[in-house]
Amino acid sequence: MFCKYVEQDREIKKLFKQRIKEKIEREKLLLEKRIDEEVPKWISWAIKPIAKAKFSWDQDGKETDGFFGEEAVSNALFLWLKRNSILMDNVILEPEKNEFIQIDHLVISNNGIFILETKNWKGAFLGSRKGWKRKEGGRWVKCKSPTTQNERHERLFRVWLKDNFPDEYEKIEKFIYPLVVMKGTDWVKTDGTTMPVVLGGIEAAVYINRTEGGNIPDDLINRIVERIKYAKPYEEKPEKKIKFEEGKTREGKRFVRIFGNQKDAEIVAEIYRKKNFKVKKIFPDKKEKGVFFFYFE
User: Helix, strand, coil: what percent of the chain each, to 5?
Assistant: First the structure.
């Protein structure tokens, strides 16, 4: 079967990792400053090393969670996904300033975009909307939620996608699917989680192959993959002057027309919302390309 495998540019990935490292160092310094400001001096000398050690441990955990299972899941996906699927591993993006995401596996195909978070966790787990629990001995204890982590990945990936493909985002926004893959887990039960949870890479591939999403054109898929491959760190965009105008229909309904793209229209709609206007859904103009409009309630 064998799907197509694409790797993110290594030099760009190095740049991302350096920026992530710099962010962690800044957060460490802020932690020390907070301790100096909020904790009495006579005890801060003892708290600082403990807080720094916990901070480093948490960061290491973010880097290593699921690491050993990722290769096995990637191999299974490569073997079992349909041929028209494209697989990318360990994708790093910065959709917002200093907000990084590291996606374990990204699968892009005609029927959708799949965001996979892999966890190489041993033991038994219970997952729900309220949180996750791990079985330790005869009791259940709280643990990190992989679904919450992947919700953040999905949210920020959508931000990145909308920024990079503003005019085509509507074609694909309904066909973005987050998924958690548990590798090496003995038993897992989920109840009302915000996304599917599967055991291993083969189950993940079966889920992706069976999903009946949208018919995303090959040309758009290739452009998305190419943009991800060479995605650069976040850059502040110069302020853009957006052209728009108000008007009324023959029936007296007020509307606003925006000349630009979907994102421009959303910016204008937000301006009106802040002025306490009730804005309806944004639509592209059927007759004029590059024009969007919305009505008021």
Answer: 45, 30, 30
